[in-house]
């Protein structure tokens, strides 16, 4: 039996940060639009402080905001102004992350006040304005914009700012169920035929994301065929797609094909089982774990059931730990086991010692990799803590720089729909943006 979601919500206020992290991750990682979550997060931040509130920080963008919680974000940003040190800088970024990803229709009601905030720089302000502008476009205009973007960017996969633009287009299109489903399926079918052009594959991300936003279950077989790519970001988009589909039928499809699946698909299945919270996910993941001979994937399957806070997972997880020598995969199992057992009220002889041991997981991992060789020489285990998409979103280049005295943009941002700076009178996207993309490709 799984723990009730009411009890998991209340665990966001638990005295132990590890429990708070697991509780908020349960909802954020499943893309749950639940207006009751953010008020609890705010209460936890007020009660425990910003630094001690939560280990992971990226979850805020996936929480639904209300008029009340949006007001809290605005007021905190107004109070803080420009950040003065690294701690303030991190908190300001977190507040901005929640603000920028608030539902656009709610942002529109407070647009003038938000854009006047000192902490809202040109990049954040531009993103907010663009999301609000997309509200006024009909579905056909949005689709044409996306198609135009895909054509323009077929020879250029480096412009991060334009990738953000496409993400916002996808989000806006997601408001219109049924939009161009046949075209989306056709594009995914074409990509499935293996268009090996690297920049074209970069554009596939946005179609998979759109299929997820539209909950387009018909696309499942096509997305499954593409999981063998050596592309971490695309792989993550596929996971998000499966989680947003999230039906028992999807779980059965992944489980039924598991025995003959590639390694990548087995890993994906385990991750999806852990993020689609249902009795079927627990049942199928534990059944697969009992038959799995590979220790690493067996650990992931048991973790999936534990991430569902399922009582049935306690016994298999404990057995796994008792029968095998501790390694990084089993460290994660132990972490999730102790967390789930704490909330479920389960008890077993090793619970106390294992609860103490997880406080030293980072030291164990550092020593283990020193003896066995690290998976990546750039890995840093000093801040190790599971619970947020296996830390998929945390990369070195994403870490904030030291806080500046003021936030300054060296060159003015040119929006895709702004007049082209060359003076042609055309929009930038119709003029020099295309030329620059073509020149970069030729070079």
What does this structure look like?
- The protein is 60% helix and 0% strand.
- The chain is an all-alpha fold and 443 residues long.
- Residues 377-411 and 434-443 have low confidence and may be disordered.
Q: Layout of SSEs?
A:
Layout: H1 5-10, H2 17-28, H3 37-48, H4 50-53, H5 67-80, H6 86-100, H7 104-108, H8 111-115, H9 122-134, H10 139-152, H11 160-173, H12 181-192, H13 198-213, H14 220-225, H15 232-245, H16 248-256, H17 263-275, H18 279-291, H19 295-307, H20 314-323, H21 328-344, H22 351-357, H23 361-372, H24 432-442
Helix pairs in contact: 5-6, 9-11, 10-11, 11-13, 12-13, 13-15, 15-17, 16-18, 17-18, 17-19, 18-19, 19-20, 19-21, 20-21
Keywords, separated by commas or semicolons:
about 450 residues
Question: What's the gist of this structure?
Answer:
With 443 residues, this protein is mostly helical.
